[in-house]
Amino acid sequence: MLDVSVDTVELPLRTPLRTAWGTLRTRSILVLTIVGSDGVVGRGEAAPLEPYDGVPFPAVAAALEQYAEILRRSRGRSGAGLVDACRDAVDLPQALAAVDMALWDRAGRREGRPVAALLTDRAAASVPVNATIGADDPDAAARAAAAAVEAGFDTVKVKVGVGDDLARLQAIRAAIGDRLALRLDANGAWSVDEAVARIEELATVGLELVEEPVHGVPQLREVRERVPVRIAMDETAALPGAVGAGAADAICLKVSRGGGIGALTVQAALIRAVGGEPYLASTYDGPLGIAAAVHVAAALGVETPCGLATLDAFDLPMPAALLPVDGRIAVPPGPGLGVDGPLG
């Protein structure tokens, strides 16, 4: 018999984040806690973001309540069997991710090993991450870029498709020099022709890659064929068959959107099978979501900097183990996901 509870947590951002899909000021997440008859606890996180992924928070909360009843009635089922039972009731990846995460966390705590060590015996000790700059003003963006250099990051990611992108990127490049890679994230703000024109213009500052310049597999493939910059798929990865379509040089995976840790390892294998490069990011997830992504990235041996250095954007204390040091986040050494406390 499992004891199950679901709690809502509000995480205010220090500074509003402006993107092509809107402005984010507060992040709402759901934390699922599972306690077995053995007393071992497992926690998982559901982090829908409707303006970004189109999934309403109330729908995920309702799904988790249904899952909670299924989990409470479970007897003798494996972790995979429990996830399948929940999926049969409501197939909602953002909610399933919380169940999957909590079960992996509990399994690791029960065995006294980190989740990454459950996934592979060759997990990396840490994961490279990028800094993210959301400032609208070129001067503010330059100051943030200089801070990223000082903090030891190798890659800076900038939201584009809002405001004067070229002026901000020129200011950022002036601040970081040639030492750091510059990555753009358009969140599908452009049409194909707009994307080609904008990327050709912005490429003058030197770009590592552009995430989701357009939405859709055919659209991404066309942009990729027409520009001299690597293209990454992000939001489009949620479409059926998109991950294995070979339409992008790299694909950004997310634990919440993918349905959990187990599902992400399968997706990463498919991406590599068709010649793509997987890396992970968050949609400003909480500590449990970030920890889960770090464990997966370490187990997969991901070398592309991941978008997981986002916890310091919140105006609340966060687990020090999940904050970047010299552009990397170490795998939490504790059992399970390695995250404790009220937010984890």
CATH superfamily of the largest domain: Enolase-like C-terminal domain
Distance between the termini: 23 Å
Task: Please write the CATH class name of the largest domain.
Answer: Alpha Beta
Individual helix count: 12
| Silhouette | globular
Q: Which sequence of strands runs across the widest sheet? A: 5-6-7-8-9-10-11
Rg from C-alpha positions? Answer: 20 Å
Total count of domains? 2
Protein name: O-succinylbenzoate synthase
InterPro entries: Enolase-like_C_sf (IPR036849), Enolase-like_N (IPR029017), Enolase_C-like (IPR029065), Mandel_Rmase/mucon_lact_enz_CS (IPR018110), Mandelate_racemase_C (IPR013342), Mandelate_racemase_N_dom (IPR013341)
Domain Mandelate racemase/muconate lactonizing enzyme C-terminal: 138-230
Organism: Paraconexibacter algicola
Any overview of this molecule?
By secondary structure, this protein is α/β, with parallel strands linked by helices. The chain is 39% helix and 21% strand. It contains 12 helices and 12 strands. It has helices at 50-53, 57-73, 79-89, 93-111, 115-119, 138-151, 165-176, 192-202, 217-226, 255-258, 261-273, 287-300; strands spanning 3-19, 22-35, 41-46, 126-128, 131-133, 155-159, 181-185, 209-211, 230-233, 250-253, 277-280, 328-330. Strands 5-6-7-8-9-10-11 form a 7-stranded parallel sheet. Strands 1-2-3 form a 3-stranded antiparallel sheet. Helix 3 packs antiparallel against helix 4 (93-111). The radius of gyration is 20 Å and the shape is globular. The model has no long low-confidence stretch (mean pLDDT 94).
